[in-house]
Design a protein that fits this description.
- Helix 1 packs across helix 3, helix 2 crosses helix 3 and helix 2 crosses helix 4.
- Strands 1-2 form a two-stranded antiparallel ribbon.
- It is 46% helix and 4% strand.
- By secondary structure, it is mostly helical.
Length: 160
């Protein structure tokens, strides 16, 4: 007989619910049905429902399949409240200095003069180049910027 799964402790239940809600929001923002998402992830609709409601009985493999189907990463699932204190946030009007973000600076090679972009412009550059980006070597501050852009400008579909 298999071992009983441990009961979630501390903030785990609320974090699982928040993760599930982010997955549901992403699915709905993309206009994908629960049935289509479940099929793309190779899981049942019931398992997808469990993931989206924060159930603890879901396997990591099922969660990863759904993330892959929705083009999400684990890093996108934790909100700013779970990020380290002082992590940058982005607003649509915020000015982002290119010198602080090497990948963004490469993507914005055509920007003349100011050396900065607003958040919408930065999100658009990341989104347009998403298929060609190598996100592994990113510095932590650029990862935080991308996460903040995803939260602030979700329609831009910035990779993470």
């Amino acid at each position: 007989m298999p071992a009983t799964a441990p009961q979630p402790q501390g903030r785990c239940p609320e974090r699982l619910r928040a993760i599930g809600e982010r997955i549901r929001r992403r699915r709905k923002a993309l206009g994908i049905s629960a049935m289509a998402t479940a099929a793309a992830g190779g899981i049942s609709r019931v398992t997808l429902h469990r993931i989206e409601t924060g159930a603890t009985s879901v396997t990591v493999g099922a969660l990863m399949n759904v993330l892959d189907a929705l083009d999400l990463s684990l890093g996108q699932l934790e909100g700013p409240e779970d990020a380290e204190a002082g992590a940058p946030t982005a607003t649509r009007a915020e000015t982002i200095e290119l010198a602080a973000y090497p990948l963004l600076q490469q993507l914005a090679w055509h920007v003349q003069g100011s050396g900065s972009l607003n958040a919408s412009e930065a999100a658009s550059l990341y989104a347009r180049q998403r298929r060609r980006l190598d996100l592994e070597p990113l510095q932590p501050n650029e990862r935080q910027l991308i996460a903040a852009l995803n939260l602030t400008i979700p329609e831009a579909d910035v990779p993470a």
